[in-house]
Amino acid sequence: MDLATQPLSEKSRDAYYWRLLATAASFALFGLGGLCLRLVIFPVLNCLPGDPQTHRMRARRTVSRCFWFFVRFMARAGVLTYDIQGAEKLGRPGQMIIANHPSLIDVVFLIGLVRHTNCVVKQGLWENPFTRGPLRSTEYISNDGSMDMLDAAADALKSGQTLIIFPEGTRTQPGQSPAFHRGAASIALRGAKILTPVTIKVNPSTLTKAEAWYRIPKRRVHFSFHVGADIDPQAFAACGPAPQASRKLNDYLHSYYIKELAEDERSTP
């Protein structure tokens, strides 16, 4: 299944001041939406019947739908366009989804696509008043770098959950290749049934660590997502002790993304 927005005219891509206004509106909507989820939606959901797992899945489904609404809002407002190749391969039990991290809203896209997914999110979001409540209700995993985090992620996969993780741990520095931490490879070896890479390309670059939200590019941004072939983590588990297997898998993933992103760059007009 391929998802895509409609192509744009040159004139619409250059609507700079409209896009700046729409970008500000998008960030305001995201912040207000987070507060609404925390103060209104989740308190109501928590009053509904069900066991803890039912409440967790209900919360994740709600966040996913809100995120996808946010993506569609940005697309319809003219902030961005996108295409997604292979979305039907995402969301399987015990699947670990990894992705490079070129922009701030990559996680919004992926969680919006996968309705019931778990996700490893950065620690700072747990102190953010706009995101703290939703994160607690969804029981996403805090990326605090501890062994408890690795255990929680591996246990989630073993229990049949889908897990999204960005092995870089933070957004890619503009103009540099992604550098993966071995924690993601270790989690995959310990708990994942399948490992599925997603390559994300953003053109022109936006919402990187070096760019404030209001420094929008001169033309509309296009996000491209390509879901790659599944990887069997156990093929690397046979390479030796856990640290050695983790290193080999991490090196493989790093090489994979360098190749995929290089091909993307060569195909860009």
Automatic annotation (TrEMBL):
Sequence ranges assigned to domain Phospholipid/glycerol acyltransferase in this UniProt record: 95-203
MF GO annotations: acyltransferase activity
Keyword terms, alphabetized: Acyltransferase, Membrane, Transferase, Transmembrane, Transmembrane helix
Keyword Protein transport belongs to the record: no
Coiled coil: none
Pathways involved: Lipid metabolism
UniProt keyword Transferase, yes or no: yes
Pfam families on file: Acyltransferase (PF01553)
PANTHER family: 1-ACYL-SN-GLYCEROL-3-PHOSPHATE ACYLTRANSFERASE (PTHR10434), PHOSPHOLIPID_GLYCEROL ACYLTRANSFERASE DOMAIN-CONTAINING PROTEIN (PTHR10434:SF66)
Descriptive protein name: 1-acyl-sn-glycerol-3-phosphate acyltransferase
Annotated organism of origin: Pseudomonas gregormendelii
